[in-house]
Fold:
Amino acid sequence: MYGFTTTLTDTSFEQALARTVDALKSEGFGVLSEIDVQAALQDKLGLAMLPYRILGACKPTLAHQALQAAPDIGLLLPCNVIVREASPGHIVVGFLDPQIMVRLVGSMVGPELQAVADAAEQHLRSACARLAGNTAAVSAV
Structure:
């Protein structure tokens, strides 16, 4: 598994996007980047698709700790979050599991980096659960 998701129903894409940013903020994350995949594919390839955004989320204290523990870990930052419309009124919000970062660097992982991944995972899962209204609506991907 590489992440976890929840599906929001009876909401617009823009409302789901705003709720996602708010849920991230409530856990101390800011959004450093936002990629509008729908617009990019339309512009570059002339392809139509449902709304799809990739958010680059960062919790500064955790990013600093990770960079202190392993300076090149910036290759795996920030934490990616997707917001995509699966069908009208059904918006999937997905979070990359920070434990993937630890698995990718393998033997280079020290206890400091593992602690950062653990904390980031806890905060992202909390944001996901906040969106879902409970933890039962969170699925692994």
